[in-house]
Design a protein that fits this description.
single chain; seven-stranded antiparallel beta sheet; globular; 7 helices; alpha+beta; six-stranded mixed beta sheet
Length: 281
């Protein structure tokens, strides 16, 4: 459970408020949203519900069919609300951890650790941004649309998937006032060339102040090239295997291009959100 601590020194007494908690959340719902993804909604503490778009939690997944996940599983925040405090995740059942999550029903407890990492940042002077994601990356970008709407920033969301029925979060983006463009493999519209064409049209028309992306190295390279060409900024949420989630184990180290120097950084601690220009496949 969440513990409130007080930090005291000899000169002054100041309240110290934790930014991360390990707590037992309670499952409110755990339902399929399409043929591949499920949405897990939980009641939690106010601290957990204060997570920012782009941050993540380490979930202690339950056992299923004789499987016992040893490590916590990192899961980006899909949604959060403060009253009543809730947090939610979008996940695809692919391994022992997510098979355990699939067994959860209303009322079940789940040990969660977070919020962790560095989230997305918005510049209030921006008028329009583009969100480009694929697969599970759409879960990471979804709460950013709500954040932008509250700041009065228009969003164009380009959602990529294998088939139209797997384009998760489209309604969520639309409810935030975003223009949604779906591209899929089955319709031969998800290739980098077509996505670049859509983005060039956006820049030439409404205009775009920044790019945000997650879930595809191919799309990342398109955005990096366009950002360099048009002098735009961008942010990317990196996906990586993690063990501890707090930078101690160095399991999630990736290389980044920092002004021409290749630098190793920890995705969980230094990110998972990074400057788009610095990211490498």
């Amino acid at each position: 459970m969440l513990q409130n601590l007080t930090l005291t020194n000899h000169d002054a007494q100041e309240d110290w408020r934790p930014t991360v908690s390990t707590e037992t959340a309670v499952v409110l719902s755990n339902k399929a949203v399409n043929g591949e993804y499920r949405r897990l909604v939980m009641s939690c503490s106010a601290l957990a519900a204060s997570a920012e778009p782009g941050q993540f939690f380490q979930l202690l997944c339950p056992e299923s069919a004789g499987e016992k996940p040893f490590l916590r599983r990192p899961m980006s925040v899909y949604g959060m609300r403060k009253a009543p405090p809730e947090v939610e995740f979008l996940y695809k059942v692919t391994g022992a951890g997510t098979r355990g999550l699939e067994t959860l029903v209303q009322g079940d407890p789940l040990d969660i650790f977070g919020p962790l990492g560095v989230g997305f940042k918005l510049d209030l002077s921006w008028r329009s941004i583009a969100l480009v994601g694929r697969g599970a990356g759409l879960a990471t970008l979804a709460p950013l649309a709500s954040m932008a709407a509250q700041a009065g920033i228009h969003v164009t969301a380009i959602l990529s998937a294998r088939r139209p029925d797997l384009l998760v979060s489209a309604d969520l983006f639309r409810n935030c006032g975003a223009d949604v463009v779906g591209v899929t493999d089955s319709e031969a519209t998800s290739g980098p060339a077509n996505v670049e064409k859509i983005l060039r049209g956006l820049i030439a028309g409404r205009g775009c102040d920044a790019f945000f992306t997650c879930g595809s190295s191919r799309l990342m390279r398109v955005l990096q090239r366009l950002a360099a060409e048009f002098g735009l900024v961008g942010q990317i949420a990196m996906e990586q295997q993690m063990a501890c989630g707090i930078g101690l184990c160095h399991c999630c180290v990736r290389d980044f291009n920092m002004n021409g120097d290749i630098v190793s950084r920890r995705v969980c601690w230094d990110g998972p959100v990074f400057d788009l220009a610095e990211a490498m496949p």
